Amino acid sequence: MDTAVAGSAPDIASRLAAVTDRIAGAARRAGRDPSAVTLVAVSKTFPVERIREALAGGVTDLGENRVQEAETKVPLVSADARWHLIGHLQRNKINKALELFGLIHSIDRVDLGLAVAGRAARAGKRSAVLLQVNLAEKETQFGLGAAELGAAARTLAAADGLVLDGLMCIAPVVDDPEAARPTFRRLASLFGELEPELRRAGHPWRHLSMGMSHDYPVAVEEGATLVRVGRAIFGDRPAAPAT
Predict the structure, then answer these.
(1) Count of domains in the chain?
(2) Where do the H-state alpha helices sit in the chain?
(3) How far is 239 from 43, CA to CA, in rounded Å?
(4) Which domain holds residue 219?
(5) Could you tell me if residue 206 is inside a domain?
(6) Residue range 47-83, pLDDT digits in tens
(7) What pLDDT digit, counting tens, does each position of 125-137 carry?
(8) CA-to-CA distance for 217 and 174, rounded, in angstroms?
(9) Is residue 50 assigned to a domain?
(10) CB–CB of 142/132 below 8 Å?
(11) Is position 117 within any domain?
(12) Does the predicted TM-score (pTM) go above 0.70?
């Protein structure tokens, strides 16, 4: 018997309650309504049984990094769950991503966004997306640079097939969560600068996807509307399957 799975129900329930309480506390400290923050439970590498336990505990939104992993899970999980693609999107996975995910967080360059727009338009739909910003300006990290964000957003806002719904970033992983605060504050500032123009163009522009297990309370204090939390809910992550 897999003891981790067999004993996981109370573990996930208690972890989820703790995360929810910390989100609410952070929102209240910032003078925000806790209901304005959506918890995206990052289920990558976890089995469907654990995902179902999280859904039973009140999770409504699930995040996956890889299209191919989500493809195996989505049919086995409640149809009421909303799936988010939070990892890098390869061009050859766009069509499947459009089928599986309600929100793509990781439009990290203009040509990818235009490719998504074209595929969505040909399928007679509009895909809700976030623009990923690389505030760390590291070559090893995906994302648009802050200096190019405005022009990129305007180009993609004019493309049929896309609904621009906000920004996403990955803050540096640091020992002190407070060290991530300037990154979150900068993303919120960029979001606000673009908001009037994109709203006038007809885009909802509602979301700041920022904060993970080690720093999500700080992200909420700085305006996050989507926090991507995996380990703090599910525990240590099993090894990813070989590809």
Answers:
(1) 1
(2) 3-6, 8-29, 48-56, 67-73, 94-100, 110-122, 146-157, 181-200, 216-221, 231-234
(3) 13
(4) 3-234
(5) yes
(6) 999 999 999 999 999 999 999 999 999 999 988 999 9
(7) 999 999 999 998 6
(8) 14
(9) yes
(10) yes
(11) yes
(12) yes
